[in-house]
Amino acid sequence: MSSAFRKAAKSGQRPHRERAQPACRQKLGLLEKKKDYRLRADDYHKKQNALRALQKKALDKNPDEFYFKMIRAKLQDGVHVIKQPKDEVTPEQVKLMRTQDIKYVEMKRVAEAKKIERLKSELHLLDAEGKNPNKHMFFFDTKKEVEEFDIATHLDTVPELVDRVYNRPTIATLQKETLKGATDPAHLKKLAQQRKNQYDLLKQRIEREKAMFVVAQKIQTRKDLLDKTHKVKVKKETTNGPAIYKFKFQRKR
């Protein structure tokens, strides 16, 4: 017999026993399942400490301090939600903004096109990668002339310069004048690399100009969609072109 029961028996009192938790209330958690006063006390002190910390934070805060989120946020289902401001613009203002966007993109595209023309005039697309090779056709009257044909002799140049599509002097020119330009293989390799870099830059500018043209078309399409005229989409928008719509014909006065 425990000491509590012995003391209750001597004093003539009825011993107190902890009542078991009903099965219907076991789902409510640990604090409702057992009368553990230590757990309840720890939970109570934890909540009191949190409240004191919040009160101190509120007292230390500047009362004149203001944040825009104070008026733009609201509590929805226990979660702070930022209110999204509504666009207060008229359809005419949207059209004007679209027009300005188109003008800006078109201005940048024209500037890019001018740079492309300048690069083309400097490079002349000589030995460019991806460029279709030029075809030089020779015509003969007899089959014998075709069999005896020598391209170096016909072009009046040395065989080493036959493969060149530019700067291909004749034998007479080579005999009269000295060879101009770089002759060192290392220097020639460096010049070839510089020319390749220029061609790569030209290719990038051409692709950028095409992309700007597509962007301008897409902006114009979105501007046209602001019209209230009935329209039907004929083709979906792709990365290389805007969507195509068919508008209902309306006779204008």
UniProtKB/TrEMBL annotation:
Keywords: Nucleus, rRNA processing. Residues 1-27 are annotated as: Disordered. InterPro entries: SSU_processome_Utp11. GO terms for biological process: rRNA processing. GO terms for cellular component: small-subunit processome. The keyword Nucleus applies. This is Probable U3 small nucleolar RNA-associated protein 11.
